[in-house]
């Protein structure tokens, strides 16, 4: 940008800058500037129009911007989430219509495989290109393999890149996948990368890379991170009473000190424990435990402990827990007698 009058007021300078940004001169435009000369001689003013002239042609400026639009450059999703979206904006900041190739590189522990067809299968991610920040209806899938022109953009034009995923049901709390989205300037209407061309002189048209990396490409990065419970389960069994004389009431009796032999008629107790790790990023909600008692034991009683409800029907025990916060633990117990 050339500033011809450094005495512009602040308001005028802002208006001037805004005008240039919104309407850049097209490549090849010839800009001619002439001076008029006048002087006094013999009591007469002598004037010459166009006493000197200078011209140049506007060069082609290649400039672009890629911006991740999600807060803190991170999108959070739960296990089994279908179609979380990372959104990127691509702007043409140059002065000519350009095509743009989009490449997406991904890495991280969260298992997602690139699916260029965008079938939406579990454990995959895919790319669509849209004209709005939100994913549009029937937005076309973009195949990022190789150089592919996603769209031609006029100066100040833009489109949105949507990286979409179907998170697997077994994705673990805290797992993440990083996505680097790179846009590369292409010749309009082609899949050919723009090449910088310099040294054409003021009467020729240079192609100048004006992007921050001066290479005709820009990259932005975002992360998809999993919020999930991190559950572990355990089941233990102890002998409450050996009941050697057959008089022990397994449903209500107090534990016998030193009982350890699970002989026929003995009373045993199962303890089922569920824990949500302190590092978990979400509580476990609507948790259900189903325990079918094995052959060889007969149900005697249950104690719901920290569970919301625990029921038994035909030897199958079902425990329900509404919410288990990160760092939380809940247990319930089942008593049964060893079959004679």
TrEMBL record:
<feature type="signal peptide">
    <location>
        <begin position="1"/>
        <end position="25"/>
    </location>
</feature>
<protein>
    <submittedName>
        <fullName>DUF11 domain-containing protein</fullName>
    </submittedName>
</protein>
<dbReference type="InterPro" id="IPR001434">
    <property type="entry name" value="OmcB-like_DUF11"/>
</dbReference>
<dbReference type="InterPro" id="IPR047589">
    <property type="entry name" value="DUF11_rpt"/>
</dbReference>
<dbReference type="Pfam" id="PF01345">
    <property type="entry name" value="DUF11"/>
</dbReference>
<feature type="domain" description="DUF11">
    <location>
        <begin position="263"/>
        <end position="339"/>
    </location>
</feature>
<keyword id="KW-0732">Signal</keyword>
């Amino acid at each position: 940008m050339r500033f011809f009058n450094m005495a512009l007021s602040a308001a005028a300078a802002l208006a001037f800058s805004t005008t240039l940004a919104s309407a850049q001169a097209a490549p090849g435009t010839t800009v001619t500037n002439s001076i008029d000369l006048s002087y006094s001689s013999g009591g007469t003013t002598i004037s010459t129009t166009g006493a000197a002239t200078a011209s140049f042609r506007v060069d082609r400026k290649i400039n672009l911007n890629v911006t991740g639009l999600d807060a803190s450059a991170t999108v959070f999703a739960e296990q089994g989430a279908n179609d979380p979206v990372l959104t990127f904006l691509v702007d043409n900041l140059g002065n000519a219509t350009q095509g743009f190739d989009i490449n997406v590189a991904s890495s991280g522990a969260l298992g997602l495989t690139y699916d260029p067809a965008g079938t939406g299968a579990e454990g995959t991610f895919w790319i669509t290109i849209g004209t709005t920040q939100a994913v549009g209806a029937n937005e076309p899938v973009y195949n990022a393999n190789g150089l592919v022109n996603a769209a031609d953009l006029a100066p100040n034009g833009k489109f949105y890149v949507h990286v979409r995923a179907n998170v697997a049901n077994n994705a673990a709390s805290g797992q993440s996948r990083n996505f680097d989205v790179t846009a590369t300037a292409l010749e309009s209407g082609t899949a050919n990368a723009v090449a910088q061309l310099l040294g054409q002189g003021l009467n020729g048209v240079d192609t100048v890379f004006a992007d921050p990396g001066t290479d005709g490409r820009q990259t932005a990065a975002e992360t998809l991170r999993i919020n999930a419970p991190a559950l572990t389960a355990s089941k233990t069994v102890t002998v409450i009473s050996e009941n050697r004389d057959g008089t022990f009431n397994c449903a209500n009796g107090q534990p016998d000190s030193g009982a350890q032999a699970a002989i026929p008629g003995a009373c045993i107790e199962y303890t089922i424990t569920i824990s949500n790790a302190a590092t978990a990023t979400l509580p476990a909600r609507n948790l259900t435990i189903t325990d079918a008692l094995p052959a060889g034991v007969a149900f005697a009683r249950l104690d719901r402990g920290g569970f919301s409800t625990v029921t038994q029907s035909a030897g199958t025990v079902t425990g329900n827990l509404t919410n288990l916060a990160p760092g939380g633990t809940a247990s319930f117990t089942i008593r049964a007698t060893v079959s004679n």
